[in-house]
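Issue 218. Parser rejects a valid record. Input:
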Amino acid sequence: MKIQGTVHWNPKGYAFVVPEKGRDDVFVPPEGLMGAMDGDLVEVLAYREKKGLRGEVLSILRRSPAAVSGTYPVSYTHLRAHETPEHPVCRLLFEKKKQKNTNIFWPLQPSLHLFIH
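Output the parser choked on:
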């Protein structure tokens, strides 16, 4: 079923979409957000699971008007959830785990630098 609602994002990467018409909230895992941010109005494709509704964002209908600026620690999973063909996530920092004896510097915790209007 298709449902419209507002994204309520969690710092762990997942979100809940709260419908406009009093339906149950829809859990959306990081890979299902399709770049949606907290406060965005989205349309999700939802299906019922044992614990409730789960879904993925089909489209972003309206962006939140809030401005966001800062450095936020995020997980690699969260970065990949926001990856698009036009905006790939740089994987160089994560390749060091696969290689031995390299001199590549990489941070212990990746950060996401945002400035959104």
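Fixed in the parser; the record now loads. The CA atoms of residues 29 and 72 lie 19 Å apart.
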